[in-house]
């Protein structure tokens, strides 16, 4: 039984790896005309949420996206250069910086990228029923929680 479970786990994680790579490749292609990558798409999506209306610290954004601050810093500098985001002083702590979406960044997100992202989702999720999506999301969240626990055990830092 352990061999079967190991083989299934290996197949599962390999397919997950392939899906992540295809998301990066095909997702970036979907928003390439806007000068965006999937990483930038994720950042704009995070900053577009109502709870991020006042901006997010780099640390909070990194935790939300589950990436390192170092990886995020490079992408943010390119996005700032392109005018999609800006760094602003945190009104509650002048030493801290918040990442906020600029007006041009919001236009790119809402008017240019989102319609293409919706088309991408429709194509990528073709033949998925609402029930299929609900179940897939449930299992992805369950996997994510378990992987967070593994990360906590190996890094010694809570991931929230």
Descriptive tags:
mainly alpha; Arc Repressor Mutant, subunit A; 160 residues; 68% helix
The CATH superfamily appears as Winged helix-like DNA-binding domain superfamily/Winged helix DNA-binding domain
Give the CA-based shape: globular
What number of structural domains do the residues give?
1
SSE string: HHEHHEEHH
Number of strands: 3
Low-confidence stretches: none
Broad CATH class: Mainly Alpha
Q: How much helix is in the residues?
A: 55-70%
| Strand-residue proportion | 5-15%
Biggest beta-sheet profile: 3 strands, antiparallel
Q: How many helix segments?
A: 6
Radius of gyration: 18 Å
The CATH architecture category equals: Orthogonal Bundle
- Per the CATH scheme, the topology name is Arc Repressor Mutant, subunit A
Characterization of this structure:
- This protein has 160 residues and is mainly α.
- It has a single domain, classed as Orthogonal Bundle (Arc Repressor Mutant, subunit A).
- 68% of the residues lie in helices and 11% in strands.
- The protein is built from 6 helices and 3 strands; from the N terminus they run ααβααββαα.
- Strands 1-3-2 form a 3-stranded antiparallel β-sheet.
- A hairpin with a 2-residue loop joins strand 2 and strand 3.
- Helix 2 packs across helix 5.
- The longest helix is centred in the N-terminal third of the chain and has 29 residues.
- The radius of gyration is 18 Å and the shape is globular.
- It starts with a helix and ends in a 5-residue tail after the last helix.
- The mean pLDDT is 93.
